[in-house]
C-alpha cells in the first residue's frame, strides 16, 4: 500500500528565485518524505562534443533538455521505483560522471526554466507554480551567481544574457506563465506564498487516496 506522490512544478526565468522557492518548500517538509528534481540536471549529455561546440549550445531552448529521460524518471518515481538522477556540471557544460541514487518520496518538486513548457510534464503535475521576477533583478542575481558559483566571467554572462537568455525568455519561458496555478512574485523571500504552498501540499497529501 502506498500513497500516490504529489508532483509540483516550479518554473520561472533564470535568476527569478525558483531554486530558493523550491528549497524553502523542501525545508518546510524536511521531517516528511520529499525530493527535488532540477530540470537543469537533465540537459542533454554533451560529453561527445568538444568544448568550443558546447559553448555554442542554446541552453535556454526547449530542445536543450532531455525531457524524455526526465519523464521516464518521474514515471518510475510515481510507480515507487528508485532512479539514478544525472548530475550536471555547468563549468564543463555537460553531465558529470556521477549520478545520484534517488528513492521515491511522497512529494516531488520539479524545478526549471522550461518545466511548464512540455505538455507531458505539465500532465504529471498536481500544482504548477511560476516565479515572476522583473528582468533587471533577474540579470543582477544571475550575474552575481554565475560568477560566484558557475565559473563565468562578467563579460560572458552579459553576452549570453543579451544574445540568448533574454530572447529565449520572452519566446519560451514567459509564455508558460499562463499554465501556472499560482504566480509567485519575487521568489525566495516571499514567505506568505511559500507558507500557502506548504499548506496546500499538506492538504493534497492528506486527500490522496491510498492505493
Ligand atoms: N527574493 C530574493 N531577493 C534577493 N535575492 C534573491 C531572492 N531570491 C533569490 N535570490 C538570490 O538570487 C540568486 C538566484 O536565485 P535562484 O533561486 O538560484 O534563482 P533561479 O533558480 O530561478 O535561477 C541566488 O543567489 C539567490 O540567493
Ligand atoms: N551549460 C549551461 C547550462 C545552463 N546555463 C544557463 O542556466 C540557466 C538555467 O539555470 P537557472 O538556475 O538560472 O534557472 C539557463 O538560463 C541557461 O542559460 C548555462 O549558462 N550553461
From TrEMBL:
Where ATP is bound, by residue?
Answer: 12-19
**Might you give the EC number(s) for this enzyme?**
2.7.1.48
Q: Which family does it belong to?
A: Belongs to the uridine kinase family.
Classification via Gene3D superfamilies: P-loop containing nucleotide triphosphate hydrolases (3.40.50.300)
Listed under catalytic activity are:
uridine + ATP = UMP + ADP + H(+); cytidine + ATP = CMP + ADP + H(+)
- GO CC, alphabetical: cytoplasm
Name of the featured protein:
Uridine kinase
EC class name: transferase
Q: Which residues form the Phosphoribulokinase/uridine kinase domain?
A: 7-192
Main subcellular localization, coarse class?
A: cytoplasm
- Which molecular function terms from Gene Ontology are attached? ATP binding; cytidine kinase activity; uridine kinase activity
- Enumerate the Pfam families for this protein: PRK
Encoded by which gene? udk
Keyword Cell inner membrane found: no
